[in-house]
Structures are given as structure tokens and as C-alpha cells.
Amino acid sequence: MLLAIVFISLASFASAEPGEPVTLHCKFVEKFPQNNWVWYKQRSGQEPQEVAVRLGSKDSPTESSSDLKIRFKINKNFSLTIKQTTKDDEGMYFCGHGKETITFSNGTFLAVAAQPQLNVSVVQSPAWSSVSPGESVTQQCMVHSKTGAAELRVLWFRAAAGQSFPEIIYTHQNSSSRQCEISSSTHSSVYSFSKNNFSHSDAGTYYCAVAACGKIIVSNQASVQLSK
């Protein structure tokens, strides 16, 4: 039985336009060449999906299905190339290595969307909070943009030790099917995330990210800790 030893810090972000290739890199491969290696993909609200695996005794990695082999390429350094990105490729990607245990790297969130000029600023508040057990806590994400709110998607993340993957804890998904439109005026919107009955397992670093027009804009970090 494999155990997961996980080191978590803030996730990285990448973006791509539909139809173009994108490569996601796996750190520390050169330091552990004989280990087994895996790539996982996770979409918001879904279980992680294995994308590829390379056994330490083999030179060539293998994709986890014939469909993935057509769409994905695993390079010699175990970086992951998506040959022609689609909206379905959007999500969080993780690579991991190990023999009897698996250590996962930080996640990389891939956003896939058309990419015109974009002007967005994101501010999260409060930057630090101390919460008593059982209390409620609310984080706010202020978004100033020249893109209408219908084209914005705001994602909330939490980074904390002791979990298998960094969490996508909530997504504000707008229902509009319009393409990305840039206007001359600036729009301001406030997105909130609330957590009731706060406990030790909820403590960590929270941040929001705005995905719009193929770009990812990350807020400042906000530390939320349990008061003693």
C-alpha cells in the first residue's frame, strides 16, 4: 500500500488558448531518476485522475489510457505536454515521485480560454485572521476589471499541510456563454467565501484567483489561523 507524503505551498498557474500546446513541468525529476513518477489532473469537484506514470526501471513513461496518449505527450524529463488544449483540460495538475511512498509537488492550475488584452486587479481581505473554534470566517475578493463579470471566474484555494492535494475550495462560475469582451469602463465586483464552524483542519493560507480571457490573476495571500 502506497502512502502519500505531501509538501504543500502556494500553487502555480499557467494559461493556454484553445488549440495551442502547453507544457507543465515536474520539479526534482533529475534528483530522483530511479523513482516511480506519476501525473494527476483534478477538476473542481471531481476526484483526481491519473494521466501518466513512469516506473523507475523503465526509460519511457506511459499515458494512462489510449485517449490520453493521443492528446498528451510525456517528455524525457517527465514534463507533461498537452498537444492541443481544450476547455476540458482546465484544472489542477500534480506530479509525484517515490518508491514505497509518493511525494507530490505543488499543483499547477491550468486555465484554458481565448486571450485578448486584459486588465484585472485582485485584492483579498483581510490579510490575516485569528478565529476561535466554532466561529465563522469570511474572506472577500475585490476584483477591478475591464472585463464584464459574466466573463470572470473566481476560484478560492486553500494551502495547508497534511492534505493530499492543495484544495480548490470554491468556484464562482458565471452562467453567461458570451465570449470575452473588453470594455472601456472598469467594473468592480466583490466575491465572498464563508466558512462556518471553523476548526483546526480549516486553518491555512487562503487566496483567490481570477480566470478571465486565458489569464490567471492571483490575489494577495490571507492567513487564517485558529486562536488558542
Automatic annotation (TrEMBL):
<keyword id="KW-1015">Disulfide bond</keyword>
<dbReference type="InterPro" id="IPR013106">
    <property type="entry name" value="Ig_V-set"/>
</dbReference>
<feature type="domain" description="Ig-like">
    <location>
        <begin position="116"/>
        <end position="225"/>
    </location>
</feature>
<keyword id="KW-0391">Immunity</keyword>
<dbReference type="GO" id="GO:0009617">
    <property type="term" value="P:response to bacterium"/>
</dbReference>
<dbReference type="InterPro" id="IPR036179">
    <property type="entry name" value="Ig-like_dom_sf"/>
</dbReference>
<keyword id="KW-1003">Cell membrane</keyword>
<protein>
    <recommendedName>
        <fullName>Ig-like domain-containing protein</fullName>
    </recommendedName>
</protein>
<dbReference type="InterPro" id="IPR007110">
    <property type="entry name" value="Ig-like_dom"/>
</dbReference>
<dbReference type="GO" id="GO:0005886">
    <property type="term" value="C:plasma membrane"/>
</dbReference>
<dbReference type="Pfam" id="PF07686">
    <property type="entry name" value="V-set"/>
</dbReference>
<feature type="signal peptide">
    <location>
        <begin position="1"/>
        <end position="16"/>
    </location>
</feature>
<dbReference type="InterPro" id="IPR003599">
    <property type="entry name" value="Ig_sub"/>
</dbReference>
<keyword id="KW-0732">Signal</keyword>
<dbReference type="GO" id="GO:0002376">
    <property type="term" value="P:immune system process"/>
</dbReference>
<feature type="domain" description="Ig-like">
    <location>
        <begin position="1"/>
        <end position="95"/>
    </location>
</feature>
<keyword id="KW-0325">Glycoprotein</keyword>
<dbReference type="InterPro" id="IPR052051">
    <property type="entry name" value="TCR_complex_component"/>
</dbReference>
<keyword id="KW-0472">Membrane</keyword>
<dbReference type="InterPro" id="IPR013783">
    <property type="entry name" value="Ig-like_fold"/>
</dbReference>
